[in-house]
Amino acid sequence: MAKKKKATNNPVIATNRKARHDFTILETYEAGIQLVGTEVKSLREGKASLVDAFATIDNGEVWLRALYIPEYTQGHWTNHTPRRSRKLLMHRYEIDALMGKVRDGKRTLIPLSLYFKDGKLKVELGLAQGKQDYDKRQDIKRRTEEREVTRELGRRIKGINA
């Protein structure tokens, strides 16, 4: 009898950590990706990069551009192109809603993470608006203040318990 594989809860392959620093995320969406075989094998090895990746809406279809999936090491002439455009799979009503929100040019679609869900690759897209430099500084200041408050509370609790 074959052993059952241990189920992992949504193993994240890649995250775009810089996206939350450079953009304000207004909404998030989950979409599937149309891939070829060697791309899936390369992703199962945990190789991908979301740096500089973005999504566009062309002719009623959502496309993920500049996502880097390296060639599969054991692939041959059927290997894929590492930075090709990949079609995202979403419901029509989601695409229509996104078209209305992105049309004005102030917002963009940024991939936040790549992960497997029930054996299928998913991408978390964020509807994002660019931050100005002063917004970034305010966020850094706010995080620093929160960190200092939690440290001080931790010291006081340890002082009481000691």
TrEMBL record:
Q: Where in the cell is it found?
A: Cytoplasm
Q: Which GO terms describe its biological process?
A: trans-translation; trans-translation-dependent protein tagging
Q: Name one Pfam family in it.
A: SmpB
Query: Which keywords label this protein?
Result: Cytoplasm, RNA-binding
Record GO cellular component, one term: cytosol
From the UniProt record, which GO molecular function terms apply? Answer: RNA binding
Question: What PANTHER family does the annotation carry?
Answer: SSRA-BINDING PROTEIN, TMRNA-BINDING COMPONENT OF TRANS-TRANSLATION TAGGING COMPLEX
Q: What NCBIfam families does the record point to?
A: PRK05422.1, smpB
Report the sequence similarity comment from the record: Belongs to the SmpB family.
User: What is the annotated role of this protein in its UniProt record?
Assistant: Required for rescue of stalled ribosomes mediated by trans-translation. Binds to transfer-messenger RNA (tmRNA), required for stable association of tmRNA with ribosomes. tmRNA and SmpB together mimic tRNA shape, replacing the anticodon stem-loop with SmpB. tmRNA is encoded by the ssrA gene; the 2 termini fold to resemble tRNA(Ala) and it encodes a 'tag peptide', a short internal open reading frame. During trans-translation Ala-aminoacylated tmRNA acts like a tRNA, entering the A-site of stalled ribosomes, displacing the stalled mRNA.
The protein's name is: SsrA-binding protein
Organism, as annotated? Corynebacterium kalinowskii
Q: What is the lineage of its organism?
A: Bacteria, Bacillati, Actinomycetota, Actinomycetes, Mycobacteriales
